[in-house]
């Protein structure tokens, strides 16, 4: 099997969907995350890059404790299955089955932790621990054995790689439902970034505890193509949604919320589009759909509960009748023949020829 040294933290097949195909070769319109761009967009001219040259670093997933390309090969398999779902289901607006939803869940789970932003977060944690260990070793005259172990662990990317593995082995997105928003209007489209995963909870805007893993009001956004974006939810909401201008803008703003250093567009953005990305009121996505469907959903759940109660009542009635019949038979008040039953012959009884 061939090996690769250039490893993408946002895969090329995903970025290919956001390319501008109007020129000689497909390119991404690249915008750095700079406040000046949004404040004075008329004076900024974006660069163009090919997907092969963005979100990539040499030996990004390689450590000293596993064979070459171990993580890269696992991620490649997940990327391939996700791309199949995109091509065969999402772009054709077909209903997703269980395997499709799991393929999306795996891709989203890894996209949450495989990026440069997450790795730098892990490195920052390492640096804090190593700094404290070195201070303690110096204060107590101890050897540097422990801090050296942590330095080696950082160099080998242990926690970064473990984070990717755990994202799959403990995939919290396996129980997630997926709404797919379609930007059908000509003057709007979805953008993406070097960290396209975003997890957001409207009910916890003022909380400093973070978002609980299974909060019912959590929403996950991930742009898939300039036309489609998936919104994960725990409200049992699935299917395709015709996105409004506000919903497209909301998903794009959430993409900017989780950005590491830059974002990408399939075309050159107009000045008013850049201003709109950073100057708007927030809104819910799945929650607003749930509110619209609430009456229908509640009616279906009520009918389902009523149907279950009717079945349960019938089972109880049958059980009670059965008990009464057994009692009457034992007391001899009724005979088996009267119920159309054959009387069991005792072994001690004589059987006439």
Strand content: 5-15%
- The helix count comes to 10
Question: Strand-and-helix sequence, N→C?
Answer: EHEHEEHHHHHEEEEEEHEHH
Total number of strands: 11
Strand order of the largest sheet: 7-8-9-5-10
- Weakly predicted, low-confidence segments: 347-353
In angstroms, what separates the terminal alpha carbons? 83 Å
Global Rg: 30 Å
- Global mean pLDDT: 87
Jot down its keywords.
extended, 4-stranded antiparallel sheet, 5-stranded mixed sheet, 13% strand, single chain, 10 helices, 353 residues, 46% helix, alpha+beta
Secondary-structure map:
Layout: E1 6-8, H1 12-16, E2 28-32, H2 35-39, E3 47-49, E4 56-58, H3 70-90, H4 98-113, H5 116-140, H6 145-155, H7 158-169, E5 177-182, E6 192-193, E7 198-201, E8 218-223, E9 228-233, E10 239-242, H8 245-257, E11 262-265, H9 271-278, H10 286-331
Parallel strand pairs: 5-10
Antiparallel strand pairs: 1-4, 2-3, 2-11, 5-9, 6-11, 7-8, 8-9
Short description:
This protein has 353 residues and is α+β, with helices and mostly antiparallel strands. Helix content is 46%, strand content 13%.
Kindly describe this structure.
The protein is of the alpha+beta class and 353 residues long. It contains 10 helices and 11 strands. Strands 7-8-9-5-10 form a 5-stranded mixed beta sheet, sandwiched between helices. Strands 3-2-11-6 form a 4-stranded antiparallel beta sheet, covered by helices on one side. It has a two-stranded antiparallel ribbon with strand order 1-4. It is extended, with a radius of gyration of 30 Å. The N and C termini lie far apart (83 Å). Mean pLDDT is 87; it is low at 347-353.
